[in-house]
Amino acid sequence: MPRTDLFLKVEIEHDADERPEHLAEEICRAVQKIYGVRLAELSSYVTHPDS
Q: What pTM was computed for the model?
C-alpha cells in the first residue's frame, strides 16, 4: 500500500486565552480518528496580532 505525507495549512481564529497548541492537538486527534491516519502532528505555527 502506498504511503503519502500530506502537509496541510489550517488557519483558525481563536480567543486570546486559547492556546494554539491545544487547538492543534484537538485537530490532530480528529484527523486521526475520522480518517484513520497513522500520524498527525503540529510542525509549527505563527500567531498574527489583531488587525
A: 0.79
Q: How far is CA 34 from the centre of its chain?
A: 14
23 grid coordinates: 487547538
3-state secondary structure the chain: CCCCCCCCCCCCCCCCCCCHHHHHHHHHHHHHHHHCCCCCCCCCCCCCCCC
**Gyration radius of the chain's alpha carbons:** 13
Asked whether 40 and 32 are in contact (CB, 8 A), the reply is yes
pLDDT digits (tens, 9 = 90+) for 17-46: 999 999 999 999 999 999 989 999 999 989
Q: Which amino acid is at 15?
A: D
Under DSSP, is residue 2 helix (H, G, I), strand (E, B) or coil? coil
Q: What is the DSSP letter of 29?
A: H
